[in-house]
Amino acid sequence: MSEIHGNPRPAVPSGVIERLKAAVGPGGYLDKPEDILPYCRSWRGNWQGESPLFLRPATTAEMAAVVSICAETGTSIVPQGGNTGLTYGSQPGRGMNEVIVSTARMKAVRDVDLDNDTITVEAGVVLQEIQRKAAELNRFFPLSLGAEGTCQIGGNISTNAGGIQVLRYGNTRNLVLGLEVVLPDGRVWNGLRSLRKDNTGYDLKQLFIGGEGTLGIITAAVLKLFPRPTEQQSAWIGLETPDAAVALLGLMRERLGEAVSSFELISRPTVDLLLAGVPGSTDPLAAEHPWYVLTEVSGQGAPGSLAEAVAHVLEIAVEKELVQDAVLASSGEQARRLWKMREDLPFGVQAAGGAIPHDVSVPLSRITEFIRRADEAMQRAYPTARFCCFGHVGDGNLHYNPVRPADWTYEQFAAEREAVNKIVHDIVVDLGGSISAEHGIGIVRLDENLRYKSPVEIDLMNRIKLALDPANIMNPGKLVRI
Ligand SMILES: Cc1cc2nc3c(=O)[nH]c(=O)nc-3n(C[C@H](O)[C@H](O)[C@H](O)COP(=O)(O)OP(=O)(O)OC[C@H]3O[C@@H](n4cnc5c(N)ncnc54)[C@H](O)[C@@H]3O)c2cc1C
C-alpha cells in the first residue's frame, strides 16, 4: 500500500528529524509511535499509515522553518488539519518517509473587520469555532458540515468543502477572499487581501483552494461574513420521486428566492438504515414515502413570517401533487433534531455493514436520470445489493452508496469496489457530471480522475504542481501523479 501513496523515498533520516524538532521546540512535536498513530489513521478507520514525526508549529515562521528544512533535505510532508477528510489525503503511507505537519496549534483569530464583513483566522481554527465567533459578532459564517466540530478551516479550504449551505452561499471557494501560504520551498506568500474586487493578474489563491495540500500549507485565511439570519424554517417533506424533488426546488426558489438555503434529498432505504442502526432516531412522518426532502429557508423576516411563506409554498406543491406529506419544525429544537437525522445518515449506512461510497454531481436536470440509470445498472450486476442515496441535491450532489448485500461478507463486497465505481462513474461522466463533488481526490479517486479527465487537463495540473513543487515533497501521491 505504501506504493499506492506514490512515495518511493527512503525513511526520514534521524538527523533531519532532530533538526525538525529543534525548529518547533518542545510541545511542537510528537515522536513516540503510539502518540503519532491516531494521526496516521483515516476517519473511517480503514487506512493506517505510519510516520516517524508529527509536527505542530505554532506560528507561520515556525511553519516556514519546518518546510525549509524539508525542502533542503528532500523530506516529504503530509499537511494535516482535523484529519476528517474522506479520501486518504491527510494520512501518510507506510514507508516512514513522510512527516505529518499539522496546523492544530495555529488557532488565532488575527483580525475582524465588521465594516468589510471579514474575519482573518489561522488555519487551525476549528470550523465550529468560526461559526460561533461569527454569531458572537452578529454575523453568519455559512460553511456547515457533519465534521464541523473537528475539521479545521485550513482543511476545509484545501478540500474546497461543500456541505449543506452551498445552494445559497457557494462552496468554501466562494467564502475565501485571501490566503497566507507556506510554499514548498519554505517561502511565505502573503495573499491575505480582504478585497471583493482585485483584477491584478492570476488569482493565485484559487490554486491552493481545493489543492489538497499538494502545492503548499495554508496558514491563514480572510473569510467572508454574512448577515445573520433572524428567521429559519426547516421542513421534512415526503415525496414520490426525485423528479418531484427537483420540481419542488424550482417552485420554492421561484416563490422564496435566495432564502432557500439547504435542500437535501434522502431515499427511504437510507431512512430505514438510520432507524435500524442509530439509536434514538425516529420517523418524522406517520406514513412511509419513497423519497424525502429536508429543506431550510432562512432570512431576515419578522418572527413567524417564514413559516407562513413555506407553508403556503408547500400547499401549492401538494395541489400540484409534488408533495405527499410534510412537517414544519415548530421549534429550534425540532429543527435541530431533523438536521441531526441528516448528519447521522452515514452512521446508519455504516451500521448496515458498510457501503461503497460515491460523492458525485450531475446537472440538476439530470438527477432523476442518474438515479434511474445507476439503480438499474447496479441491480443488474448485484441483484441483492441495497441502494442508499442521499445528498445535497440542490447542488446536484448525491452520495450514492450501494450497501453490502446482507448475504455477502464485507470483504466480498469490497472486492467489487473497482467494478462498482466504474458502473456508477461511467454514468456520471456520461451525464456531464463529476466523480467527486465535494470530498476531493486524495488517493481514493486518483486513478479514476486520471482516467476521466482529458489529457490536456491532467497535463496542466501536472505542470502547475511541478512549477510550485518541483521536488514533489508536498503531499506526494495525492491528487496528481507525477
Ligand atoms: C462525518 C463527516 C461528514 C462530512 N461531511 C462533509 C460535507 O458535507 N461536505 C464536504 O465537503 N466534506 C465533508 N466531509 C469531509 C471532510 O470533513 C472535509 O473534507 C473537511 O473539509 C476536511 O477538513 P480537515 O481539517 O479535517 O482536513 P484534513 O482531513 O486534515 O485534510 C484534508 C486535505 O487537506 C489537506 N490539508 C489540511 N490542512 C491543510 C492546510 N492547512 N494547508 C494545506 N493542505 C491542508 C490535507 O493534506 C488533505 O489532503 C465530512 C467528513 C466527515 C467525517
Mean pLDDT: 95
Low-confidence blocks of residues: none
* Distinct small molecules bound, one entry per kind: flavin-adenine dinucleotide
The tally of domains stands at 4
Question: Which sheet architecture does the biggest sheet show?
Answer: 7 strands, antiparallel
Please tally the helical runs, counting DSSP H or I stretches of 4 or more residues: 16
Estimated helix fraction = 25-40%
Distance between the termini: 18 Å
* Spatial strand order of the main sheet: 15-12-14-13-17-18-16
Radius of gyration: 23 Å
Q: What is the CATH architecture assignment of the largest domain?
A: 2-Layer Sandwich
Can you count the beta strands? Answer: 18
**How large is the share of residues in beta strands?**
15-25%
The level 1 CATH classification of the largest domain is: Alpha Beta
- Fill in the CATH topology of the largest domain: Alpha-Beta Plaits
Class computed from helices, strands and strand pairing = alpha+beta
Shape: globular
Walk me through what this model shows:
This protein is α+β, with helices and mostly antiparallel strands and 482 residues long. Helix content is 35%, strand content 19%. The strands form four sheets. It has a seven-stranded antiparallel beta sheet with strand order 15-12-14-13-17-18-16, sandwiched between helices. A five-stranded antiparallel beta sheet has the order 5-6-10-8-9. A four-stranded mixed beta sheet has the order 1-2-4-3. Strand 17 and strand 18 (397-403) form a beta hairpin. Helix 1 (14-24) runs antiparallel to helix 3 (60-73) and helix 9 (268-277) packs across helix 11. The longest helix is centred in the C-terminal third of the chain and has 20 residues, at 332-351. It starts with 13 loop residues before the first helix and ends in a 14-residue tail after the last helix. The chain binds flavin-adenine dinucleotide. Flavin-adenine dinucleotide (FAD) binds next to strand 3, helix 5 and strand 10.
